[in-house]
Amino acid sequence: MSPPHQPGTSRRRRNRRRRHQRPPPEEEQKQEILRSDFSEEQMNGEKNINGILSDDLLSNIFDRVPVHDIYKARLVCRRWYQVTHSHNTYALLFNKYRAVFSMGTRDGRVEITKLRQQKTSVAVTDCSELCLAFAEGGNYSELILSHHSSEVVLNLPSLVTRSKATPMYSWGVSCARESMDLKVVVYIPPDPYTGVKVDEFHVLTIGEEDESWRVVQAEPRVFKYKPVLITAGFMHWVLHDDRLLTMNLETEEFTESSGPDYSIGLSGEVKNTYLSTGKRLSLLRECGELYWEVWEMDPRMFAWRMTGDFSLEEHRSQFESTGKDVALIPVGWVKYLEVLVLCADLGENTILIYNLIKEEMEKMELPCRVCYYSIHPYVH
């Protein structure tokens, strides 16, 4: 493992912000956009819920109610928040220009929500309500962060570096696990037009008193055509040699690591596809024709373990009806280790759903055509 890239001053010493003073009106909007913001009034109003709902009952609710409905219910008590962020609930969010829809499971069935209008971008967030985008009418250094339901729009400080070559799907918005600070990370690749010759990561903490971008530079190795992957408290970028660069959102330290070792006897071309589960990072390794291994990484230890494998040979007729070889690409988990989404050249808005437990495959029509790199998981 390569040594971590240090961002300079440790973030742990700067994370303690004064919270006993009421922020000025312009700062209160920033607090509204934080998902972990529980007021005293909310806590007092919901204190009876803490003693009524058992963890078993909450788990039963999670198994029966789609994730997007849990989020919309907005049952705000601290234990509800803690359990929803520790329970294995997953959904995939699909972005299309100014519209989104999500895919989840209910009683073992895959369900898709209706297409709803809201501002979108290909930047990845861990919350379906948040959108990181360029400011309208601005240049490539002016960004906004908006929250759909509350209609709060934050104008972020101007980026230190601007670049027309920046790939927005390599940008991320997520929370640190301990402090619950909401952080924006913008990746900017080398750009001959601006003279930047290294990879730059611009980091911003929302609501911080000295709110400003912190810039971390690294040698140019990030594969900019791969989207950033967000897991609980971490962001991951795929490097050109199929290694990973991982950022700890709490400490803002970067660590480079490799994927799992290859099995003995593997021959031919092996394709690795990294996917976020919402909680952890998974790797689907195509080791042979229509055969995949499934691996999972512990981001704190950077250790991989194999969780299983599967073959789609018996389902070949469902995606090779034309008689031509069709490349299958895993694009996301609907439910981790159970329901996987794959894309193939089956039409503009058709995808494949494979249930690893039942070993069943089905085709599913989406409400509209989407760009597959805009699909990402969120957990609520």
UniProtKB/TrEMBL annotation:
Q: Which domain of life is it from?
A: Eukaryota
Record field: compositional bias (Basic residues): 10-22
For this protein, the record's InterPro entries field holds: F-box-like_dom_sf, F-box_dom, SCF_F-box_component
Ranges for region Disordered: 1-36
Checking Pfam families in the record gives: F-box
Residues forming the F-box domain are 53-93
Question: Compositional bias (Basic and acidic residues) at which positions?
Answer: 23-36
Q: What is this protein called?
A: F-box domain-containing protein
Q: Which organism is it from?
A: Striga hermonthica (Purple witchweed)
